[in-house]
Amino acid sequence: MIDLSNKTALVTGGSRGIGRAAAIKLASRGAKVAINYNVNKTAALRVIEEINEINQVAIAMPGDVAKSADVKAIINETIDKLGSLDILINNAGITRDNLLIRMKEDEWNAVLDTNLKGTFNCIQAAAKKMIKNRTGTIINLSSIVALSGNSGQANYSASKAGIIGLTKTAAKELASRNIRVNAVAPGFISTEMTKSMPESLLENISSRIPLGRFGSAEDVANLITYLASDEAAYITGQVFVIDGGLDI
Ligand code: NAP
């Protein structure tokens, strides 16, 4: 069984969906957990309650990952309140879908700022702390559309492809300090992000998934928890597709 006791994790966007499931799973394996959220304080506090109910320590912190000052404050507060930062899950992400020729500059900027620059901000601030401790692991949320593209998601797929390059570069730069950096690339996962898709599209996608269903947030949380653990001590710079076989 994966043992994360004596470890501290920060999950960005931990108030809902995959981030929520990852925070709860990491805590269930013994980690002290800090979750960040953007605006949804009620949901974030509910996650803290769920973690406290399994007798684990958790704190919640608001902040916009696109803003480097917010990120520095989040990382500092995590270390001040929980004692260290061993595991960083860069999960916060948004979509602003539109066809390429109609996409507004605001839609492009919002998605690139949150998804790609936000991931960079968090890696940079966390790595400075992890380097001093000579240990750490970072997991970035990419997507299968980074590899395949997706109509209506020029901004989102570019941000998620950027995360793959960022992951591999960070892995190379930080490996000598015993810091591992990996990415997970989920397919279609049942969360609020996918809930707004039209029913006909959801059915069409489901019919093309060999395992016959959308993934759950817990499916992705299981992979994240494995990669965060010492069981994955020799894995860095990799991208793990988790999509029910959609890409085969
Ligand atoms: P979700 O349910 O929409 O939740 C998004 C989370 O990100 C929320 O906690 C939200 O906080 C937070 N967030 C958004 N903007 C933020 C910002 N600027 N600063 C800090 N936090 C911010 O999303 P999800 O479906 O769980 O997706 C999680 C990650 O997996 C994303 O990176 C997404 O791109 C990726 N992914 C998802 C799927 C899928 O099918 N669902 C597939 C591939 C990849 P608030 O609650 O405060 O708004």
Top keywords for this entry?
single chain, binds NADP nicotinamide-adenine-dinucleotide phosphate, 7 strands, alpha/beta, seven-stranded parallel beta sheet, 248 residues, 9 helices
What is shown here, in short?
With about 250 residues, the protein is an alpha/beta fold.
Would you spell out the secondary-structure blueprint of this structure?
Layout: E1 8-11, H1 17-28, E2 32-37, H2 41-53, E3 58-62, H3 68-82, E4 87-90, H4 105-133, E5 136-141, H5 145-148, H6 154-174, E6 179-186, H7 192-195, H8 199-208, H9 217-228, E7 239-242
Parallel strand pairs: 1-2, 1-4, 2-3, 4-5, 5-6, 6-7
Helix pairs in contact: 1-2, 1-9, 3-4, 4-6
Provide structural commentary.
- The protein is of the alpha/beta class and 248 residues long.
- The protein has nine helices and seven strands.
- A seven-stranded parallel sheet has the order 3-2-1-4-5-6-7, sandwiched between helices.
- The longest helix has 29 residues, at 105-133.
- It is globular.
- The two termini are 30 Å apart.
- The mean pLDDT is 97.
- Residues 12-13, 15-19, 36-40, 43, 64-66, 91-94, 114, 118, 141, 143, 186, 188-189, 191-194 line the site of NADP nicotinamide-adenine-dinucleotide phosphate.
